[in-house]
Amino acid sequence: TREIEELREKIEAAGMPEMVQKEAVRELDRLSKMPAAAAEYTVSRTYLDWLVALPWQKRTDEVIDLPKTKQTLDADHSGLEKAKDRILEYLAVRKLNPEVKGPILCFAGPPGVGKTSLARSIARSLERKFVRVSLGGMRDEAEIRGHRRTYIGALPGQIIQGLRRAESKNPVFILDEIDKLGNDFRGDPASALLEVLDPEQNVSFRDHYLDVPFDLSEVLFITTANILDPVPPALRDRMEVLEIPGYTEEEKLAIARDHLVQKQITNHGLTPEQLTIGDDALRLVIRGYTREAGVRNLEREIGALCRKAARRRAEGDETPLHITADVVVELLGAPHFLDEEMEERTKEPGVAIGLAWTPAGGDVLFIEASRMAGTGTLTLTGQLGEVMKESARAALSWFRAHAATYGADPDFFKTSEIHLHVPSGAIPKDGPSAGVTMVTALASELTRRPVRGDIAMTGEITLSGRVLPVGGIKEKVLAARRVGVREVILPRQNEKNINEDLTDELRKELTVHYVTSVDEVLLLALTPPAVITGDQKTERRRQPPLQ
pTM to 2 decimals? Predict the structure, then answer.
């Protein structure tokens, strides 16, 4: 029939590999012998439609122009230098060796730092097609590999569907939220991705529906994740992880000035002549109304300012509006975040400022210690995980062994109960990096010497009093700066992170103390006994030290 002949012509024109073409011709011969009314006819016809629609030989011609690519990436995104450099290196290699297999990149970082938009920008700069598949909540292996044709309504998986949409064999293919994959009785999609993301195997990726190999080696796969812990080790091993940390205040200001303000003004039907937002206003919005690693909330707040301006204009007020810091307070209300809290909260002994890493970036963590009459028990509250509880026990054991050195009663634990609390009790917390903060809070409470309110710290401790390196240093340091803390205590072995990840301007702004022992931490963090104020002496008299 005419339909069969058309399919035969399409099969010959599709440029399929010989083995695939044989399979397609065999299926076509089966189809030609079936009556058109048979249920199997539609299944077979749909299968052949998929085979001829795939880009077996179609590819986008890419022009590798490194200066132009760099210009495109810089125009779309401020910062993110490591990720941009890696893309330019890949292109340089591809220019010298066009047969090179594409890397499997994983952009890992907090929400709102531009992971997905950077991948889109990479596709634009390479002049390649762009495909995005969200993996969030995916639980069925068939979503990746497709269903076998025996099932009614079977279709190929998301990988083959994406390539058909792109109509190209070499698109930029982004697999979003790879850390949100689930698994249940229907299989494990993360395991199905092992074949897709392995350059040695994906030359012959076999979808269950197609049941013939398809070459994915020319696809540039980019995955994104907020945290890498949930990603199975075998899958993580196949990807080259590029950490995209949170932005500094200057970077946020540059992003707002160069990208967000113009975008929001246009979205709200205004022009730059009708509305301008000053740098002082943007700085106040960044400091006082948002506390995040990325720029999503910053964009929302700028949008709120534009809405207020749009309403004024719609109500007949034609005067151009220039938004300053005072106007921001008038339009958005009082700032949500205040910096004075740090000094206020550490006035009393027993409170220390720690630094924590979260999937949303760095954060400041207060740790409070209290001592009361009791029989040698340690109480820990604040939804602490097992690792953090063990850090607290190690901190207490270290201080008990060295209490006399700091003028505390060596037998204090026999007649006392110690309570360690980490505020924001609704949020689960875990990890070893609060060790130095816990020992500082304990030492402060038991010596009645307050902790300095202008210093924050992070680091794991050992029972012998060593301070070990921890992760997330850039995010933690940015969190300290966000709340106005200008001095930070870090493990000596994290010095390389400060030198590699922080800009010169940021390093000049901060005073970083590198330590190797708990003694050094306490020397820096505790106020000298003579500094105790009259109010605190009264407080001390009212609550005499327990024997």
Answer: 0.77
